[in-house]
Design brief:
The chain is mostly helical and 202 residues long. It folds into two domains: 84 residues, RNA polymerase sigma factor, region 2, helix turn helix motif (Rna Polymerase Sigma Factor, Chain: A), CATH 1.10.1740; 92 residues, Orthogonal Bundle (Arc Repressor Mutant, subunit A), CATH 1.10.10. It contains ten helices and no strands. It is globular, with a radius of gyration of 18 Å. It starts with a helix and ends in a 5-residue tail after the last helix.
């Protein structure tokens, strides 16, 4: 069954179907929330909150848009409520990147790990809106049209905002790396690529 069909079933009383949606989306939601809050424990709690809200507000679901867009909108609202309740400074993620079983040597791997840590820290220095955009566009790889629907803006606006967010991310990364081109290892395209693959919170 499609996500939309499952949610319609949940809305119409087959609440057991929610378990299937949980299996499909809980990791995606956790990654999104962990990356945008910088707090794994909070992200775990927020994922549970999202599914509680889905059940609570199931009657409001309308099959006129993608379920993915709808559930990420709920996740954004849950995160906003969390920030309001905390009223505290966001903490930078402390986790290390996954180390591949094979690949670069120790020295090169150390440099890559340092790059990844700088990128994670640079990401957390962005505004909440810009950080969210990069997570959605580069890590979650949502299409611009779907992000536009989620944020209620035009697709062209999303493209411009993502470009600006990447530009700011690169500037922050360069600052953390003292502007050393050897440390940067590339250009904006490299930053854009790594912002979607190596900003892990593990």
């Amino acid at each position: 069954m499609t996500d939309e069909a499952l949610m319609l079933a949940v809305r119409d009383g087959q609440v057991g179907r929610l378990g299937q949606l949980f299996e499909r989306y809980h990791m995606a939601l956790f990654d999104f929330l962990a990356r945008t809050t910088g707090d794994r424990a909070a992200a775990e709690d927020l994922v549970q909150d999202v599914f509680v809200r889905i059940l609570k507000y199931r009657q409001t679901y309308r099959n006129d848009s993608r379920f993915e867009t709808w559930v990420f909108r709920i996740a954004r609202n849950a995160r906003a409520d969390y920030f309001k309740s905390q009223r505290a400074t966001e903490q930078l993620p402390e986790g290390e990147c996954d180390v591949p079983a094979s690949g670069p040597g120790p020295a090169q791997q150390l440099e890559l790990d340092q790059d990844a840590r700088r990128l994670r820290r640079a990401l957390m220095q962005l505004s909440e809106d810009k950080r969210e955009l990069l997570v959605l566009a580069r890590y979650r790889q949502l299409k611009y049209e779907h992000i536009a629907a989620l944020l209620h803006v035009d697709q062209g606006v999303v493209k411009v905002r993502v470009h600006r967010a990447l530009k700011e991310l690169r500037a922050l990364f360069l600052k953390a790396a003292d502007g050393d081109p050897k440390t940067v290892s590339g250009d904006t395209e490299w930053i854009a690529k790594r912002s979607g693959t190596d900003l892990r919170i593990v």
